[in-house]
Write a structure and sequence with these properties.
The protein has 440 residues and is an alpha+beta fold. Among the domains are: 102 residues, no CATH class; 36 residues. It has 16 helices and 12 strands. Pfam families: DDE_5 (PF13546).
Length: 440
């Protein structure tokens, strides 16, 4: 086949069967196992909103009950499936990979969804009523995918409110953990499961936490973690304490080196980089990035178990953006944020199945990539298409895996069911509001 055109529907179906076979043993009964398969197929489909209602209709079910039971009451452990997702990603994408930690917000109305409160989320860029999930991604030259998740549970509004916890199904053993602590838990779990990554990266939320940094050092894992410009570091033999942005301003011109932080949508991302030793050995430093156009600065605390080149630190720092791409693909392609659940268990189950769908797309992208090893000197012509992207693969799978056309009577039955359910909900809302008005 021509470069970029390795689309093989039969092979993709076989890969999907293999992915689902990996988690099949985590379901004790055949019914939830079959529903889980239909659920993931629905996440890979082109339905507009990937909630239980639309996924059930896509699967040909008469009602959403089976999908809802899968997320709420069926007997299966989302953490066991998460372990299989992580193993699947490492099998297909493993090799010189970097672990990346970050959080993302899920905007929600009301007060009952587990972990919801008014809090800052980068999803909205402001304080909103939202849930926040902390995620771990794995990125290698072959691809990237999410491999773990933790729902952040605020300390005062949730951890110390037993009634609220009970109402949303938060397990008794779940205690308050900061976001960096949740990140360290996921990193340690990945390492214990056999992940051979040598590096971790993350933004300022994680770089500013000394316990996370010391935990990584104790495991012998190098890190390149972003920190604020006001961070103070010790330099030179006298151990002088200097603020990061002040140190950057004092560096001579020859301290800066222009290097690419990796390929972006518009080509290599070139920045000017400088590094300053901040420890007794050469394994600890402050890495500084400067935008050559705007002069905007970014700072990273770095440590490695052995001496490394500047280019290695630059590569890891540039990899951090891969998790943002994972969030974009997970939300835009497989409905990571399309859920309509409030329960702790339901949140973890939906998120885990969405992670599996994203991991499958990443594996397909690897298998569909053209093999240039047979002719590495072959020039890339302007007429060659780009390699298959995650959105394009999801679009093709949505068409290639689509079931036969739904008969009109089934479409009408779903329309009637939805409108009856919405009428019932409207009456309940009106009744509640009227009662509240009369009480006041």
């Amino acid at each position: 086949m021509a470069v970029g055109h390795s689309v093989d529907p039969a092979r993709w179906r076989a890969m999907f069967d293999q992915a689902m076979a990996r988690i099949a043993g985590r379901f004790r009964r055949v019914e939830p196992r079959a529903t889980a398969r239909a659920f993931v197929l629905g996440l890979l489909s082109g339905v507009e909103r990937k909630n239980c209602w639309q996924l059930a209709e896509q699967a040909g079910h008469d009602r959403p009950g089976a999908m809802q039971r899968l997320l709420r009451s069926a007997r299966w452990d989302a953490d066991e499936v998460r372990d299989e997702v992580r193993s699947y990603v490492l099998d297909h994408l493993g090799g010189d990979g970097v672990l990346i930690v970050d959080e993302t917000g899920f905007l929600k109305k009301g007060l009952r969804s587990a972990g919801v409160q008014r809090q800052y989320t980068g999803t909205a860029g402001r304080i909103e009523n939202a849930q926040v999930g902390v995620f771990l991604a794995y990125a290698s030259p072959r691809g990237r995918a999410l491999i773990d998740r933790r729902l952040y549970l605020p300390e005062h509004t949730w951890c110390r409110d037993p009634d609220r916890r009970s109402g949303s199904g938060v397990p008794e053993q779940v205690e308050f953990s900061t976001k960096p602590r949740l990140a360290l838990q996921m990193i340690e779990a990945a390492l214990d499961a056999g992940c051979s990554s040598s590096w971790v990266t993350g933004d300022e939320v994680y770089g500013q936490d000394p316990q996370l940094r010391s935990g990584l050092e104790a495991r012998g894992i190098g890190y390149v973690l972003a920190v604020a410009c006001t961070t103070k570091v010790r330099i030179n033999e006298n151990r002088t304490v200097v603020q990061a942005d002040t140190l950057a301003d004092s560096l001579p011109r020859d301290a800066w080196h222009r290097q690419s932080a990796g390929a972006g949508a518009k080509g290599p991302r070139y920045y000017d980089w400088a590094w300053v030793q901040t420890g007794a050995d050469k394994n600890r430093c402050l890495l500084i990035r400067r935008n050559p156009v705007t002069d905007e600065l970014a700072f990273y605390l770095c440590w490695s178990p052995g001496e490394v080149a500047l280019s290695a630190l630059v590569r890891v720092a540039g990899t951090r953006w891969c998790i943002e791409e994972c969030f974009q693909a997970a939300k835009g392609q497989v409905g990571l944020d399309h859920y309509q659940v409030r329960h702790w268990t339901s949140w973890h189950r939906h998120i885990t199945l969405a992670m599996l769908a994203l991991a499958f797309l990443a594996a397909v992208a690897v298998s569909a990539a053209p093999d240039r090893s047979t002719d590495p000197n072959r020039p890339v012509h302007s007429s060659d298409p780009i390699d298959l992207t995650i959105p394009e693969i999801r679009h093709l799978i949505g068409r290639l895996f689509r079931p036969s056309t739904t008969p009109p009577h089934r479409l009408l039955a779903w329309s009637i069911w939805r409108r009856l359910h919405q009428a019932q909900a409207r009456r309940a809302h009106y009744r509640r509001r009227l009662t509240s008005h009369l009480d006041t």
